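[READ THE FOLD]
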Amino acid sequence: LSKSTTLESIWMENDNISAKSLSEFANNEKIYSLNLAGNYIGDEAGYILAFAQPNLQMVILDANHLGPQGAKALASNQNLKFIYMSDNPIGNEGAIALASNPNLEVIALDNDLITDKTALALAQNKKLWALFLGDNHIGDEGATALASMPNLNGSLVLFKNNLHDAGAKALAQLKISYLNVGQNHLGEEGLAALKNSSSIGNLDAFDNVVDFKKQAQIVKNYHSRIQAELASLQQSCVENQNDFCKKIVNILRFS
């Protein structure tokens, strides 16, 4: 597969892919998207992909044992527009490095040991329109910063963080296709602000102080989470209709 001259998208989750195989994929001039979730390659994945062919713009590396150094190496590749790095212990150090990549449009950092520090860094990125930050330690300060992002109109996932009513009120000002704030600490006031917002397309707010369900999705494992988040991206892309979105929809149609 790594030698193919026609394939643009490779999806090989949990297939015991080695660093050597990844290097071969990274050197393929045709491959546009690469999903290697669950292969536990380690920081070497970041070092290899830092020098991937420029056509590679979309990588999914969930559950690959990358740490801060691997994330920092990957962040140096400014051809990438779409990075999924969930279930990797990269912490704020690695995540802030990724946030500094000026060409990123979509990033997933679920369960990556990040806090408000990362949210504040992400808020400085001018191109991001979709963020997946579930199962972390982001509070109201981080949520307020994210709510100020001018291009964040696709998806924002903040389930299982540390949000309260102040953060919910800030997020209610977003004009966004999909917002997930399930499993936080929202009360009636915060949930009412979100529910009454006319600028939020689809809202998940399950398992808060007051349970409000509109389109709840419970995350079971990294594979089901990837599928749910990619589905939300497809819906966001229907509304955004930029060139990169059209490419994403075409790839996901066959995933």
The chain has a mean pLDDT of 89. The two ends are 16 Å apart (CA to CA).
